[in-house]
Design a protein that fits this description.
Elements: H1 11-20, E1 24-27, H2 38-47, E2 51-57, E3 67-74, E4 78-79, E5 82-83, E6 90-91, E7 98-104, E8 106-112, E9 118-124, E10 128-131, E11 136-141, E12 148-155, E13 160-161, H3 163-168, E14 172-177, E15 180-185
Antiparallel strand pairs: 1-2, 2-3, 3-12, 4-5, 6-13, 7-10, 7-12, 8-9, 8-11, 14-15
Bound molecules: manganese (II) ion (MN).
Residues 89, 91, 98, 137, 154 line the site of manganese (II) ion (MN).
Length: 191
């Protein structure tokens, strides 16, 4: 099949890589400083450097003609009352979008622009969220029991800017209040 393909990448190589790829994992330790409750974070770390999320990146070449894609799975759990989540990022090429499709579980996408607009989109199996260019995005699992699993796709040349969020944080957080997922101001926001 690959000799019939006009693409710059070998079809069999890319699809084969998807089967062989190991997941990239993020444990609690790698999220030091991301959860607002530092005491709860220390207590959780003392117990176990637990797996928070993992993702499969299919290794598509990082060029504008390609579509990078993969899956991500966020485990259920909380640090204090804040739900397990990804680090979150802007794209280095800021004006590049991304599509997320929920495969299973119950979670959502926290999004914000550099100017301070905020959007939270709850997601269940079959829901799609389109993250427009310029919006930082973080996936959050609000289920107490199930992993939150999504398929994602974005322009190959987008790049990842994790530093801005690592420094400033998101303006809003998702925490459990009175047994329900609730969006609150981030007391440690550093914008
Ligand atoms: Mn992204």
């Amino acid at each position: 099949m690959s000799d019939m393909s006009p693409t710059t990448i070998d079809f069999d190589t890319v699809t084969g890589a998807s089967e062989a790829a190991d997941p990239l994992t993020r444990t609690l330790k790698s999220l030091d400083g991301y959860f607002y409750d530092a005491d709860a974070f220390s207590a959780a770390m003392a117990e176990d450097d637990a797996l928070i999320y993992e993702y499969f990146d299919m290794g598509v070449p990082e060029t504008s003609g390609n579509v990078a894609y993969g899956t991500t799975s966020i485990k259920p759990g909380k640090v204090g009352d804040e739900y397990f989540m990804t680090k979150g990022h802007f794209h280095t090429v800021l004006d590049t979008a991304e599509v997320y499709y929920c495969l299973s579980g119950h979670g959502g996408m926290m999004m914000e622009t550099p100017e301070g607009k905020v959007e939270w989109r709850e997601m269940k199996k079959g829901d799609v969220v389109y993250v427009p260019g310029r919006w930082a995005h973080r996936s959050i699992n609000i289920s107490a029991t199930e992993p939150f699993v999504m398929f994602f796709a974005f322009p190959g040349h987008a790049g990842h800017d994790y530093g801005t969020i690592a420094t400033k944080g998101f303006r809003k957080l998702m925490v459990e209040r009175d047994g329900k997922p609730t969006m609150v101001d981030n007391p440690r926001w550093n914008g």
